[in-house]
Amino acid sequence: MTGLERLLADPARADGWGRVGLLTNPSGVTGDLTPSAVALQRAGVQLVRLFGPEHGVDGSGAPGEAPDAGTDAASGLPTSVLYHLTDAETAGRLAGLDTLLVDLVDVGVRFYTYISTVRDVLRAARALGLRVVILDRPNPIGFTVEGPPLQRQEFRSFVGVTQALPLRHGLTLGEVARVLAAEEDATVDVIPTDAPDGWHPGRPWVPPSPNLPDLTNVHLYPGTCLIEALDASEGRGTALPFRLVGAPGVDAPALAAEVNRRDLGVTARPAYFTPTTSKHAGQRCAGVQLHDTGRPLRVLPLGLTLFTALEAAGAKRNPDWLQKLLGVPADTVPSSPDAALTALAGWQAAGGAAALSLRPFWLYPRQGDPS
């Protein structure tokens, strides 16, 4: 059961919550795909307004966009967004509520912006005296931790609002909210899920954002999203975002060979594609399609291998964006795959230390943890 389903099984928990808002999107559904807003209405929760993160309540917004005021077709409730607002704007939109529920699928990666929206909500809630309740859901990529935390304060941005989290942080959204609440001197309640570590194969996958249509994309995302920091395509504007990677003029067989000579948990196939949107829209790109092999996926080594191999093929890096995504100074990221993977070992150690510091915020036991 998810946190939503636990609440639906015991709706008396909502007694005294007053006027309730819900931060959600299409991923907020029950096991039979009933939208959380509709299910909560049926359970007698006094919902008065829906809010969306990036992409909006209905999930129709493009990356970096969030459709604003409207009416939700399923529940009939008015909608608004809580994406990339000032503290005053966030507080203004939440004013008049007594409780805000959060029911979102997060994907376990520091730069996924739903974390940032939750941080903004907690700040506003502290000022307003608003109760915030996370209806927790599983981390679809599990409790494994990879990559460094943000190493410098100046690397913080809306794709990384805290220096506490490794790149792949291994927490549920409820646990992340507890970390953020401690940093913001705020309060948050979490209704836990009972299967937090990975995605149960019997539960349907509803994309939490337009470019994560299936679980293969989600598992690749922590690594191949690093290609955003190059003038190369990470597959946005194609049917296979984060699974197709390339740029005009790349030697596709050579790139595939560079990936396949390493045990990264995927097979790379030379591929050719023309994005319809985003980088290189309308241009023929050469690169690779990544295929799941069933072997353990080494997603950050994969991402760095692709990043550095594409850079060697002529793609230009964006140092500022690389620092914000990866979390380390851009001038410490080597330009060859072998050197980058050596550097990654040191960054992993920093990520492991950060992960240990997050243990007080865990809600769920971890395999091998003696406590």
From TrEMBL:
Residues 220-313 form the Peptidoglycan beta-N-acetylmuramidase NamZ C-terminal domain. Keywords: Plasmid. InterPro entries: NamZ, NamZ_C, NamZ_N. Signal peptide: none annotated. The keyword Cell cycle does not apply. Residues 20-215 form the Peptidoglycan beta-N-acetylmuramidase NamZ N-terminal domain. It comes from the Bacteria. GO terms for molecular function: peptidoglycan beta-N-acetylmuramidase activity. This is DUF1343 domain-containing protein.
